[in-house]
Structure prediction request, 188 residues.
Amino acid sequence: MKIRHRHRVLRRMKRLVWFYRICSVSLFKLGLIVLLGGQGFRVNLTPSEALGLWRIVKPDRPILVGDLVFICPPNTDTMREARAREYLRFGLCAGWVAPLIKTVAATSGQAIEIVDDVRVDGRPLPNSRVARVDGKGREMLRYDGGVVPPGTVFLHSAFSGSFDSRYFGPLPMEGIIGLARKVWTYAP
Prediction:
């Protein structure tokens, strides 16, 4: 009887030790994320850009074509649908989505034409073929094209599976958090 009791106590103690270890590691990770996040660091786990640690840098100049930016998408029906389809990850932007890391392909006043790929002011945008369906076979809606409105940017990623302005159109520049700078990344 005493041996059974001792074994039960030992099993409970082992579970408790493991519980404390898991909690300690989780709290340490959470603290590290909060500390790094407060310093402008972000971890990218999406294939749109290199995986790894990035830093958000406040621009000291206007945003230009070719700039790689972190941007919070607006909380629209399109973005809510993208979140539901898991194109967007959980984060702290409006609608509980993570900021996107994308390259500015066009700015206010530039003409966007989309057929099978994207053309900016008549010139083809490299690696911009438009997907008809997503990885799960669901139809992809695409942006119709047109002139980029004032105060917005057309965003692109060379990754073929990227969810970018090919599908949702230009985004407001006010959503730009800053320029994206690699700290430690890995491109598979």
Notes: The longest helix spans residues 2-38.
